[in-house]
Amino acid sequence: MKKRIKIVLIMISALVLMLSLSACNIVTELNGDTDENDDIVDNDYDYDYDIDNWTADDFFPNLSYAEEYEFQDKSDGYLNASEAANTVFNDLKDSDRIIDYNDNVEYTMTLIDVISIYGEDSYIYRCDGGNFSEEFAYSYQSGDTYRQDRDGDWVSLTWHGDDVYNDDVDNNGLKPSDVNWWGRYNSINYVLGISNYNGKSFNFTVDDESLASGVAALDPDNFYSAQFGDIIFTFDGEDTINITGKDIEYAETYFRSQYQN
């Protein structure tokens, strides 16, 4: 009987010793006291990109990035969501679109959705800071930036030309507000509708969107010319618009039949 008790005590002692050694190893690893810990990589963490370590240039010290929308990153070869947020913020700041911008105010670009805008996957952001809060979009394939108008339509803020549009541009004494693109135009075969002209871009439809629709950007050097992809709109300033472009079915001359504003 005594022999059995002795054996049991020996086994208990050995078990306690093993548990003590394991506890010491765990504490050592948690404290980072071993050189081997530096080589440990957690490969079980599934992520699209690391928000804290992204490498976009010139990230403003008063700008932070957040996400309210979970998504699978498909921006292979393009800017990811955080890099695009930085790009959009820089453009908004440089074009004075952030009302009462102040370097001392903390701003946040928050990803709130990913949707398709005119056939392109686009990040939707809410820019908040001080009393400013507005939503913008970035189509990462084309690099187009959009803002939402009062009707909820996405209006392009991007011109694919040599120069960046500037609100102070004086086109030989002419200003964008002097040119009225709004209206309904008819050609022999089609009906062209132009709305939401804001001095930088306008929405257009051909046959009430059944054939084509989009947002055309104004040429900063010629307020009578606008572009949407390969489509060029040329306005005579009165009542006639010519649409030109390679393999464009509705490339015709349109005459205004109705004014809108």
Walk me through what this model shows.
The chain is α+β, with helices and mostly antiparallel strands and 261 residues long. Among the domains are: 59-156, no CATH class; 177-258, Lipocalin (Beta Barrel), CATH 2.40.128. The protein is 16% helix and 34% strand. The strands form two sheets. It has an eight-stranded antiparallel β-barrel. The chain has a six-stranded mixed sheet with strand order 1-2-3-4-5-6, covered by helices on one side. The radius of gyration is 30 Å and the shape is elongated. Mean pLDDT is 75; it is low at 26-58 and 160-170.
Give the secondary structure arrangement, pairings included.
Elements: H1 2-30, E1 63-67, H2 81-94, E2 107-117, E3 120-129, E4 132-139, E5 144-148, E6 154-156, E7 183-186, E8 191-195, E9 201-206, E10 212-219, E11 222-228, E12 231-235, E13 240-244, E14 253-258
Parallel strand pairs: 1-2
Antiparallel strand pairs: 2-3, 3-4, 4-5, 5-6, 7-8, 7-14, 8-9, 9-10, 10-11, 11-12, 12-13, 13-14
Question: Any descriptors?
Answer:
single chain; 261 residues; alpha+beta; Lipocalin; eight-stranded antiparallel β-barrel; six-stranded mixed β-sheet; 2 helices; 16% helix; elongated
